[in-house]
């Protein structure tokens, strides 16, 4: 594959600059600001055709309506500052100088992050709160104020959102442009130290914030120079891994000015009780450490607002008196699988806004009732629901938690807790969430039936639903009623035989208008998927117009898929007009007429990747593959497969062939269809490979791989990550089709 020459983007033209500027500064009401148009064009010209400068100043001027305000921007002395090659720094400084003082402080603090760092809004707001950049008000929570600040900085182009394609994550993560980061760094100067750890001996005594992100912290001791910095407020380390097992330790008694202390993924098994000396501490991050328990003295950190313990896999107990942390607002426990139960009376921390994991306990003060009066939001997963002995104790008031967006309900396998299916049903019935819920996950449910509220329209706003390990359930709720659903996962549900088979009574399934990803995995009793409970009628089912990814795995009893009056034929394929990725794995009972996929493939015009593995009835690639003009990856693996010759014409797509060793060596795997005739196909495992030579698949041993890779690379039809001949066979990952015209 040849290299692509660098294309230097040109600046925006004056007309393009003006279109962008006036859209940001005036919106659609240019005529109402005729007195400002001439001044706006002068400001626009000073941006030098650089989009970032135009966006920054255009959004700034949106807040200015007086002519003298616009005139002062035109005549600002900041335009006379030294400029870089894009003439952008003065424009950014001008935009920064027009921010309210609170926004200036919040923006400048972002210099603690390295360039190109993905900033999580939730984290940033909590750090602002810890440094008292955001004050409490009677009407608004500080998190809401911080959210408004983030939104305004995004609008003014100081932040760039990186999740624009995903509605759920939109506005929750962002970056700063390198030049914007330079601006923040120039404002903070020595107050912020964000460099490699090796240089941490040269720390200014004016430093207020010390950060080391994306580094191997464990290779270096705690910088002694930090003990001499009396103004230090932030200490934030985010290691990339445990490069050594040197115990992390520091003398907290010499660091009493800390507001933020973060030691993410450092080798820490025990936290010193001297942490109680950090009386001003508001943010504590010990996530991904080896810590087993927290000292009881942590309960004297009365100003603590955020405690981050995510994925502390060794943590088995929390301090008994955590209810004394009256200012605690966010408690992150996700991934703490060894944590046996919550500390007692956690419900007395009335400020709590976030508890990512709540582990139900049996002792007094550890029950679900502790959640009743908490105004929780964001994400909540309630684990070990099988421990709820009396369903009357399941009143957690989830229906009153309107800010809760993501909910997980989990029953674990615990022989000591024998909850009856009837009690499990009553528990789930009592855990009805608010209608604002967007992501919902039920795992290990012991009941036979799903609650009434799952059959109603309570979950209308749910976009992501996962049901797993519900082994007593023989029917699913009416999933097609979830009009907003975009992701659906059904896995390890033992007794379900039909999906949407007469569960809705006389109702007809309406289809999934928004569904983009569907995964059905390990349903051993599932025989058919029927989208019309009467198996007849035309035009009733709207199908899956938005579905892009379909995965069907491990369905040993699966016999058929039917939609309306079409059984596994071309009519089904029409129901997936947007399908891009189709994966079918381990379907031993799949009928031959379906596995050949001979009908309807032409309707999958968007299909880019097709994966067929573990389907013993699959005997041939269909002629219809020639219609898949968008197909880029074909992945096949079957012990019995024999790929027959086809009359199809060659088509231009990349082929990715992967098989297990016994499949690769199978004598049946010998001939490719004409559609793939001119493709150089390479499949591999650790010791063997298969290549295409003159319409035949040939078996290669590992020692032949280096010369093989070199010869194919010379034809520019292979990419490899390998750096030495010893591991070439393990890293070859892409093959390009050579068409008829390219051969000549």
Automatic annotation (TrEMBL):
One of its GO terms (molecular function) is ADP binding. Residues 112-184 form the Disease resistance protein winged helix domain. Residues 368-492 form the R13L1/DRL21-like LRR repeat region domain. Pfam families: LRR_R13L1-DRL21, WHD_DRP. It comes from the Eukaryota. Keywords: Leucine-rich repeat, Plant defense, Repeat. GO terms for biological process: defense response. Coiled coil: none annotated. InterPro entries: Apaf_helical, LRR_dom_sf, LRR_R13L1-DRL21, P-loop_NTPase, WH-like_DNA-bd_sf, WHD_DRP. PANTHER family: NB-ARC DOMAIN DISEASE RESISTANCE PROTEIN, PLANT BROAD-SPECTRUM MILDEW RESISTANCE PROTEIN RPW8. This is Uncharacterized protein. The lineage of its organism: Eukaryota, Viridiplantae, Streptophyta, Embryophyta, Tracheophyta.
């Amino acid at each position: 594959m040849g290299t692509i020459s660098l294309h230097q983007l040109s600046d925006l033209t004056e007309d393009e600059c003006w279109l962008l500027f006036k859209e940001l500064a005036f919106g659609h009401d240019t005529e109402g600001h005729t007195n400002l148009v001439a001044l706006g064009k002068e400001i626009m010209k000073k941006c030098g055709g650089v989009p970032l400068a135009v966006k920054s100043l255009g959004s700034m001027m949106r807040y200015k309506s007086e002519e003298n305000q616009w005139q002062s921007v035109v005549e600002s002395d900041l335009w006379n500052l030294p400029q870089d090659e894009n003439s952008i720094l003065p424009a950014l400084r001008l935009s920064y100088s027009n921010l309210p003082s609170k926004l200036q402080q919040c923006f400048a603090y972002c210099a603690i992050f390295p360039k190109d760092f993905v900033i999580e809004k939730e984290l940033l707001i909590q750090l602002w709160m810890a440094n008292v950049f955001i004050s409490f008000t009677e009407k608004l929570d500080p998190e809401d104020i911080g959210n408004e600040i983030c939104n305004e900085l995004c609008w003014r182009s100081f932040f760039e959102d990186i999740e624009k394609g995903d509605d759920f994550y939109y506005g929750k993560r962002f970056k700063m442009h390198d030049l914007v980061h330079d601006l923040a760094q120039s404002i903070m100067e020595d107050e912020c130290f964000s460099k490699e750890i090796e240089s941490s001996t040269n720390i200014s005594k004016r430093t207020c914030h010390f950060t080391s992100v994306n580094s191997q912290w464990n290779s270096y001791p705690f910088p002694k120079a930090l003990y001499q910095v009396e103004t230090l407020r932030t200490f934030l380390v985010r290691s990339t891994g445990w490069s050594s097992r040197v115990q992390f330790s520091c003398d907290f008694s010499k660091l009493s000015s800390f507001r933020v202390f973060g030691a993410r993924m450092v080798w820490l098994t025990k936290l010193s009780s001297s942490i109680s000396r950090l009386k001003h501490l508001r943010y504590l991050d010990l996530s991904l450490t080896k810590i087993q328990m927290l000292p009881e003295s942590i309960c004297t950190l009365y100003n603590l607002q955020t405690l981050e313990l995510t994925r502390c896999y060794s943590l088995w107990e929390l301090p008994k008196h955590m209810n004394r942390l009256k200012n605690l607002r966010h408690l992150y426990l996700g991934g703490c699988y060894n944590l046996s139960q919550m500390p007692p009376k956690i419900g007395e921390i009335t400020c709590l806004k976030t508890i990512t994991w709540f582990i139900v306990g049996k002792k007094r003060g550890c029950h679900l009732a502790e959640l009743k009066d908490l105004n929780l939001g964001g994400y909540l997963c309630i684990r070990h629901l099988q421990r709820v002995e009396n369903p009357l104790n399941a009143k957690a008031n989830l229906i009153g938690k309107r800010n809760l967006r993501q909910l997980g309900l989990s029953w674990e396998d615990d022989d000591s807790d024998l909850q009856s299916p009837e009690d499990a049903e009553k528990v789930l019935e009592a855990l009805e969430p608010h209608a604002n819920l967007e992501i919902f996950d039920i795992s290990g449910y012991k009941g036979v039936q799903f609650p009434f509220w799952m059959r109603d329209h309570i979950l209308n706003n749910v976009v992501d639903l996962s049901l797993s390990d519900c082994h007593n359930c023989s029917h699913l709720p009416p999933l097609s009623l979830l009009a907003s659903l975009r992701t659906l996962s059904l896995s390890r549900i033992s007794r379900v035989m039909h999906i949407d088979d007469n569960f809705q009574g006389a109702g007809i399934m309406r289809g999934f208008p928004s569904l983009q990803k569907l995964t059905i995995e390990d349903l051993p009793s599932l025989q058919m998927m029927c989208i019309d409970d009467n198996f007849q009628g035309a035009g009733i089912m709207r199908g899956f117009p938005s579905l892009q990814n379909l995965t069907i795995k491990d369905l040993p009893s699966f016999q058929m898929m039917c939609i309306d009056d079409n059984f596994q034929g071309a009519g089904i394929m029409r129901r997936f007009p947007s399908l891009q990725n189709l994966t079918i794995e381990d379907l031993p009972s799949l009928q031959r007429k379906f596995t050949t996929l001979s009908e309807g493939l032409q309707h999958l015009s968007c299909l880019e990747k097709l994966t067929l593995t573990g389907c013993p009835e699959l005997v041939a690639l269909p002629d219809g593959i020639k219609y898949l003009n968008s197909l880029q990856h074909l992945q096949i693996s079957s012990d019995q497969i024999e790929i027959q010759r086809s009359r199809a014409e060659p088509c231009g797509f990349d082929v990715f062939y992967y098989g297990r060793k016994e499949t690769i060596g199978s004598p049946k795997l010998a001939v490719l269809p004409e559609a793939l005739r001119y493709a150089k196909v390479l499949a591999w495992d650790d010791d063997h490979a298969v290549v295409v030579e003159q319409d035949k698949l040939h078996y290669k041993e590992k020692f032949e791989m280096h010369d093989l890779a070199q010869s194919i690379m010379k034809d520019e039809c292979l990419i490899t990550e390998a750096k030495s001949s010893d591991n070439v066979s393990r890293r070859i990952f892409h093959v390009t089709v050579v068409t008829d015209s390219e051969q000549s």
